[in-house]
Design goal:
Length: about 150
């Protein structure tokens, strides 16, 4: 059994190490739009617990999107409604939108620590090769994001 395992492992390692970086749509003759992935993270305190931030992670395939617009909001729950308490908008182009495989770029919006229940909201849109795509993403809510964890 052991003799059969070693060649299988060697083949697997060779396959994994060969060309791991997807090239996306580098070819200028391509008509397919560049694919982008956008992920929203809930509010999280910084190390000193003086501020907290909502983070949006993003990456597009090569050569990057012609334009990627990211509008980030931190919202606070006010009874049954949510209201914006901090916002930021970023317009990125080309290589600014690209990230290596399994890596992400990030943008944040932050606020000084205070009590309440907060969430991160992002509206994003991507333009690539005459195609536009976008979405609205909402993180889970976090009560008092600067409060120290019970265990740790």
């Amino acid at each position: 059994m052991r003799k059969a395992t070693i060649p299988v492992i060697l083949m697997l390692l060779t396959a994994l190490s060969a060309g791991c970086e997807p090239r996306g749509n580098d070819d200028g003759q391509q008509s397919k739009p560049v694919h982008c992935t956008v992920i929203v993270d809930g509010p999280k305190a910084d190390e000193k617990r003086a501020n907290f931030a909502g983070r949006v992670r993003y990456r597009c395939a090569t050569p990057g999107a012609e334009k990627l617009t990211i509008k980030i909001r931190l919202e606070k729950q006010d009874g049954e409604k949510w209201r914006s308490v901090a916002t930021a908008t970023h317009t990125l182009k080309g290589k600014q939108t690209y990230a290596a495989e399994l890596k992400y770029n990030a943008k944040t919006v932050s606020l000084s620590c205070r009590s309440g229940t907060y969430r991160t909201v992002v509206d994003w849109s991507r333009t690539s090769r005459k195609d536009t795509e976008g979405d609205n993403l909402i993180s889970g809510s976090v009560k008092d994001p600067c409060r120290p964890p019970l265990f740790g």
